[in-house]
Amino acid sequence: MPYVFDGRKYAVEKEEILKNKVIALKQKGIIPKLVSIIVGSDPGSVLYQNLKKKAAERVGAEMNIIRLGSDLKTKEIQEIIGSLNRDTSVHGIMIQMPLPDTFTKENREEIVNLIERSKDVDGLRKDSPYLHPTSKAVLEVLDYALDIVRPPCKERTCKVCVVGAMGMVGGPLTKELRIMNNELRDEGAEGCRSGELTRLRNLQFEILEADSKTSNLSQLTGSADVVISCCGVPGIIKEDMVKEGAVLIDVGAPVGDIDKKSYEKASFVSPVPGGIGPVTIGCLLENLTKPLT
Questions:
Q1: How far is CA 209 from CA 91, 135, 148, 163, 201, in A?
Q2: Which of 105, 109, 176, 286 is the most buried (most CB within 10 A)?
Q3: CATH class of 133-187+194-277
Q4: What is the pLDDT of residue 184?
Q5: 246 labelled ligand-binding
Q6: Can you give the residue ranges of the Tetrahydrofolate dehydrogenase/cyclohydrolase NAD(P)-binding domain (predicted)?
Q7: Using CA atoms, how far apart are residues 252 and 293, in angstroms rounded to an integer?
Q8: What angle do CA 148, 231, 218 make, to 5 degrees?
Q9: pTM beyond 0.85, yes or no
Q10: Do domains 29-119 and 133-187+194-277 have the same CATH topology?
């Protein structure tokens, strides 16, 4: 039977650490403040925003949500972001994704890049000093997995297959793995964006990039010691596509990418729901508080 990661329990432990950091900050007169902008009324986005707000309140941080209509013009959002950039009491600004279909990819990039670099706690700017919270959560869970199951790849190059490697989560994740592997320079990051991750940093990786349409997807996932799927295609990773003893990390939402029958072959599983999701919110709040401590 695999070790099934409990993201909710892990998140509670992370929140306790954050709570103590916030107490120390308040003693210095600093109250960490995050402002999140949501455009439209996508039910998933609204739910996720509320979960973030509750988590922020539990650790003692402040989070304000600005709700805007989907018919809002880009210029109006620009003015709001400009005001938040100038507000010294605001330490983090984020735009809840996805934006409505009326916004183009170019609109999205323009809006994200308006956020002051030091306040981009969601790590969406290309030059952000922060790693995207979901990507950061995946790396934390993988580091945890390597301690729990001690896979054979600790003695050799570890093959990691990222399915969805060009997406919002997979892109930053793959880049960070390559930085840790000394294949890329860390451009613009202030300190270690992905935390300590001591077990990961002692490994060498062979990084296999794929997406849902990769022709030899089964071959890539089947050869990997670690399969991380974040392509958003429910059940795309089947039982016959993973090898015995693999570490499986599912980042599909709202339904998992990895078929649950695959779990029987794994040594470690981070499932959906209850895996990466709860950890992601903690990583966002870490990004908010880290530069203040």
A1: 34, 15, 25, 6, 20
A2: 176
A3: alpha beta
A4: 64
A5: no
A6: 207-290
A7: 33
A8: 75
A9: yes
A10: yes
Q: Which residue has the higher pLDDT, 77 or 198?
A: 77
The closest of 141, 74, 67, 65 to 103, measured between CA atoms, is 74
Instruction: Tell me the per-residue pLDDT of 13-50, one tens digit each, with 9 for 90 and over.
Output: 999 999 999 999 999 999 999 999 999 988 888 899 99
The class of domain 29-119 in CATH terms is: alpha beta
How many whole angstroms separate alpha carbon 250 and alpha carbon 35? Answer: 28
pLDDT for the residue 192: 44
State yes or no: pLDDT of 12 exceeds 60.
yes
| Cα Dmax for the chain | 56
* Residue among 273, 291, 236 nearest 21 (CA): 291
pLDDT at residue 148, as a whole number: 87
Has residue 288 got a pLDDT over 90?
Answer: yes
Domain range summary for the chain, segments of one domain joined by +: 29-119, 133-187+194-277
- The DSSP-derived string for the chain is --EE--HHHHHHHHHHHHHHHHHHHHHTT---EEEEEEES--HHHHHHHHHHHHHHHHHT-EEEEEEE-TT--HHHHHHHHHHHHH-TT--EEEEPSSPPTTS-HHHHHHHHHHS-GGG-TT--STT-SS--HHHHHHHHHHHHHHHHH--GGGGSPEEEEEETTTSTTHHHHHHHHHHHTTSS---S--S-TT---HHHHT--EEEEEE-TT-TTHHHHHHH-SEEEE-S--TT-B-GGGS-TT-EEEE--SSS-SB-GGGGGG-SEEE-TTTSHHHHHHHHHHHHHHGGG-
Q: Show Cβ contacts of residue 20 under 8 Å, excluding neighbours closer than 6 positions.
A: none
What does the pLDDT look like over 258-269, one tens digit per residue?
999 999 999 999
